[in-house]
């Protein structure tokens, strides 16, 4: 993850250099995108809950879920986040929030019906690992310059300089290149954070096999979930523990999540390590 973030930083430095070399002023565009990034950062949890039709629940409304997450937070040394439930058949869970103190974790009624308590504990530990790693903040920041590159490409294409000036062409080509490479690197970073959250959850619960079993059950149940429900929840795929369209290894080249078989393989390897250590 550090290597990927370093490459992104290096890429963005080169992009800024290309803009200066072309004599381009992107101040207004950076300000606009910066405002959008801050809005996403501070409002993402509310927007995500609204998109899923989720609501925050009190300990009286969901005592079992609250007790489970409180116990996991003690084990992971985290403050207890807000807890929400989404009434949908889509078996999934997600975490949002720019910091540990502002986080919210959400489980769907579908996943709570599908998994047994040990498996659900593994899933919620995975979401808490995202909170601990500040993954929402990281992905928002690394997407900042990719958004600038995309807007700069559009701006250069429609409002580039005259035919005698190469500035517009330079900006357009640099923007396209930066956006394409950023897109690939961000997908790689997203997949790494899923592996990291899986590992964090397994070490917190001490039961990698429970999380692996949960992933298998979620994937299987997803195949039986009505397509209209999957499409409605599809915009949250980047934050779900399992995307609504489970894909094979070859098809995950442009996915935010690693192949399911690779995740399970790593969890099984970790289970073996823990058993040997015991």
Model description:
The protein is α+β, with helices and mostly antiparallel strands. The chain has one domain. Helix content is 68%, strand content 6%. The chain has a four-stranded mixed sheet, with helices on both faces. Helix 2 packs across helix 6. The longest helix has 39 residues, at 167-205. The model has no long low-confidence stretch (mean pLDDT 81).
The helix content is 55-70%
Radius of gyration: 21 Å
Shape: globular
Question: Quick one: how many beta strands?
Answer: 4
Low-confidence stretches: none
Helix/sheet category? alpha+beta
Distance between the termini: 29 Å
Mean of all residue-level pLDDT scores: 81
Order of helices and strands: HHEHEEEHHHHHHH
For the largest beta sheet, what order do the strands appear in spatially? 1-2-4-3
Strand content: 5-15%
What is the number of helices?
10
Number of domain modules: 1
- Please summarize the sheet with the most strands: 4 strands, mixed
